[in-house]
Amino acid sequence: MPDWLGYFSQEIAAGLWVALQLLVVSSFTTAVWALVVLVVRISPLRPVQLAGVAYIEFFRGTPLVVQVLAIFAYLPSIGIVLPPFTTAVLAVTLNVGSYLAESFRAGLQSIPAGPREAALALGMSRFTVFRRVIAPVSLRVIVPAMGNIVMQILLTTPFVYLVGLQEMMAKGALIQMRTADFSVYLLIIAIYIVLGLAISGASAWVERRMQLP
Amino acid sequence: MFDSLLALLPDQSFAVALSTFLKRLPPALAVTLQITAGAAAIALVLGMIIALGRSSPSRLISNMAAWAVYIGRCIPLPPLQLLVYFMILSIMPIDAVAAGMIAVGLQFSPYMAELFRSGIAVVPFGQIEAARAMGCSEMLVQRRVIIPVAIRVMLPAIGQLVVGMLLNSAYVSQIGARDITGVARNIINSMFTTEIWLVVALTYFVIAFPVSRFLSWLEKRLALTW
Fold first, then answer.
1. What is the tens place of the pLDDT at every residue in B30-39?
2. Which residues of A132-161 are buried (b: 16+ CB within 10 A; e: fewer)?
3. Domains of chain B by range and CATH?
4. Under-50 pLDDT residues of chain A
């Protein structure tokens, strides 16, 4: 039996703490960034719209590993030196933001035009229509999408040790180098399973709570 | 011809790196496609087994298959890849490409299983019952009623998953595979030309984007309209 408890208390716990911070911070930045991209993507101005499409398609059509390594290598070469955590947040946000912006857009499109038109016809102001008709429905589309996205961010975070962030994978590699014991990766997988089941359980609970009666 | 064009570039270190990358690209592309194809085969088989397990009448088997999906979807590629590689290496010699196929295939099999399940679920039960009532054998029901409909729904989605596997195969460079990313990392480490990353990204993009676009078109084309 490998010394998992020892691995955990010595190094993996510290890596887990960094990974959790990254998960929370980049969930927020990704949500905000995706809203910005959504606004750009559905802009009535054609060039602006195309810029949004180009960004979304490029980041969805290239490997995460390449994006992470490219951001890591490119920023210092143009004189921008960021701490590893910031670089990691940037890489995760740019990557997952492109997926989230598309799922926001799909959510918006799935809302039928009828209720909005009816509300406008009743003489509600545009703001009231948004607050009373569009937002309540959109939220029920967006919140489950957010659950999936937090899950996707969780699966993205173990890649960012490539930019030198000392999260679990980096710690695992150190332990493997010291002890030649690769089972440390099994420990890391077990931790990710616990985190993932917790996230999907929580998002299923929120989704149930928000269901329309 | 191409080399003389490269000689015109103002940044010669970039030109050298670019021509090295382009020379090594064909075999590297072959490795990337090989990993993708192997992973796709593994994910298809495993996904099918899990999906069949989920529709099993035995409570135990269907629950086990369901948990395999819930748990499998929480496992990120990096630790899985390294675990698979070093675990097999401790028993027998294996090259990075084969280990990459197994890891990427394992990672995508829960998604594949969910696809199969949802594909079978779109066939209205009435049609299956009608076929049975007319005396079709189970085999014939599968072949003539379920699969033709399910395949229409599943095919584009399976394609999108394969594109996902292509993009994820880039991580196999971490254990030393000489795929597109692996070759690029070697060049960039020895020549310090970070701009090559853009070329690498574009290489993946020109494969992934048209395929993914075609699949979206196919999805609309094959969509059921009943």
1. 999 999 999 9
2. ebbeebbeebbebbbbebbbbbbbbbbbbb
3. 22-169+179-221 (1.10.3720.10)
4. none
Long-range contacts of B68-72 (CB under 8 A, 24+ apart): B68/B110, B68/B113, B69/B110, B69/B113, B69/B114, B70/A197, B70/A200, B71/A193, B71/A196, B71/A197, B72/B106, B72/B107, B72/B109, B72/B110
Q: Which domains does chain A have, with CATH numbers?
A: 9-210 (1.10.3720.10)
Chain B residues lying within 8 Å of A157, measured CB to CB: 76
For the stretch A84-108, pLDDT in tens is 899 999 999 999 999 999 888 887 7
pTM: 0.87
- Residues of chain B contacting A, Cβ within 8 Å: 70-71, 73-80, 82-83, 86-87, 90, 167-171, 173-174, 181, 184-185, 188, 194-195, 197-198, 200-202, 204-205, 208-209, 212
